[in-house]
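Batch job 17 of 40 flagged for manual review because the log was empty.
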Amino acid sequence: MELLHRFAQDVQPQELPSRFNNPFYYSPHRLCVIAAGAVRDILSCDEALSAEVAKGKMFGVLVVQCSDGSVGYLAAFSGLLAGSNMLDGFVPPVYDLLSPSGYFKQEEERISLLNGKIRERENDSCYIEAVETVAYLRKAMEEELSAMRASMRESKARRSALRSSGALASEEEALLVRESQFQKAELKRATAKWQQKISGAEEAVASFKADITKLKEERKMRSAALQEWLFTQFKVRNARGEEKNLLEIFSTATGSLPPAGSGECAAPKLLQYAYLHGYKPLAMAEFWVGDSPAGEVRRDGCFYGSCKSKCEPILSYMLQGIDVEENALERGGEIDTIAVVYEDDYIIAVDKPSGVLSVPGIVGGASVQQWLRESYLHSNELYVAHRLDMATSGLLVAAKSVEVYKAMQHMFASREVAKRYIALLDGIPANSEGTIEVPLAEDYINRPRQKVDFVGGKDAITRFKVLKTIFKNGKECALVQFEPITGRTHQLRVHAACREGLDTPIVGDALYGNIAGRLMLHASSLAFCHPVTGEEISLETKVPF
């Protein structure tokens, strides 16, 4: 099948994007949306493939311009699909690690043989018997020695009673002393006897363990060497015609080895194929098809930014030589107007606009703290007491001294501040009100995303209530009131989007739903006891959507 797909209708020059979209934060170009729909149609025509994709898979499309000026698109999938990294209609991998005659598969087979040897040693009947013998001897030793110690305590109590009577002759006292000495010597001899038995049994166990450890060390060494070799085979190009392998790229960008699976995502595959075949990249988009993976929030049909840990260094290199849009998610917005809604000698509360940071970020951009210090109070004695996501608008409280700042932080941490948010959901949730209790953890591979984690996650609790329904963008959407009991990062956004929560993302959520103007989430009210005066403070702001 031809890998360069043509659009059903000719694409006019004015329809082409002026700049290549930032792969980590973007609203998909119209041509990318059309291409994604065409890819889904291709998948639906193959029953077996469609069933496989339904389990969940990330796909990507790249709109390209050919040397003759015509426009088409390329398609790719991340990782493997149906056990293969090559399927008709999709670009090939950057490096074919599944080639049966290649070094990777041959070395992988050697590592598999080591795994077999390790399992064989661990399941050896002599090894299992030796381990069980050690456990049996330790238990028998403990039982016998415990019985001897109990007998010694009884004898000691009897001797103490005889001595307290004061009627013992010297010969009788000597007998009691010899009895005590004999019992102690017996305990010592019994301990030595058991330890000798156990030592002999442990030698047999140690011999097996040493063999297993040696095999595991060889496996570890071979696996690490194979992984490092593999990264040298992933040689990617950029728009300037330069080439580097993944080890070189990550060494420069992060000073560390690439994470496992680097280079196997859809985006690097697409760019590599375009460069190798002389196509000019115009726009790219990655989208999810099928069920969400366990823990992650991925929704069928939604477009997502490329992953940070694996793809950011690679794509930053591969896009050199192309005019790429800035990442607005990192840059931050500009402050037009910040409304001060409350102020006294100790605290100040403002209505933060969407797109503005609460405090200065790593990559810069306007922040509420900076504005208050430099443009409003003209003093550095100002500390933001809590945080709102950059995309979230609404009430933000700051303190005018370190002491009040610490008091306010304590109030937020101890749940003494009542918070309410208003959100517009991209649909109607199944329940009109209730409580969501879904623990969350940081998704290290896809920062700043969070994930559902019922094992190692932190408790996250949200009360919700549907206020009304609104017809927006051709569909019914729910206006919802959220009351976060806990204050985890992205708590309301994940609780809205995840299937364990409302299974309905907030409109405009670029991380857990679809980009659409702004994130429709607003911190509408705060209520707390003033940290200095003790006065009950109740603040509210108008919802801007």
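Reviewer: the log was empty due to a logging misconfiguration, but the result itself is present. Residues 370 and 376 are 9 Å apart (CA to CA). Unflagging and moving on to job 18.
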